[in-house]
Specification:
Number of strands: 4
Number of domains: 2
CATH superfamily of the largest domain: Peptide chain release factor 3, domain III
CATH topology of the largest domain: Alpha-Beta Plaits
Shape: elongated
CATH class of the largest domain: Alpha Beta
Number of helices: 3
Structural class: alpha+beta
Mean pLDDT: 88
Largest sheet: 4 strands, antiparallel
CATH architecture of the largest domain: 2-Layer Sandwich
Helix content: 25-40%
Length: 100
């Protein structure tokens, strides 16, 4: 697990500014962003035992989204390709299907 802080992914620096402004105005909370070395996220699905084993060997790359779903974070496409090759029992997805 990465830690207790929140990880926010955006497309473009302006989105960080908008997010910070909204949080500061609506909740009166200070906001500080720190860069991350991660550039890609993949939601991980599969049988419980396979997912647990995957999490145990990739703890530094694991996070959970706001719904509590498992997310694998990386900076290299190579890592994603390796996981798909070495763990065919897992499904990695770049987007998360939302049920409304």
């Amino acid at each position: 697990m990465i830690g207790s802080g929140y990880i926010v992914g955006v497309v473009g620096a302006l989105q960080f500014e908008v997010l910070a402004s909204r949080i500061e105005q609506e909740y009166s909370l200070p906001v500080r962003f720190e860069p991350s070395h991660f550039t890609s996220a993949r939601w991980v699905n599969g049988a419980k035992a396979a997912v647990e084993a995957f999490v145990n060997i990739n703890k530094g790359h694991i996070a959970y989204d706001s719904d509590g779903d498992l997310v694998y974070l990386t900076r290299l496409k190579w890592d994603i390709d390796r996981i798909e090759r070495d763990h065919p029992e897992l499904k990695l997805t770049a987007t998360k299907e939302m049920m409304v």
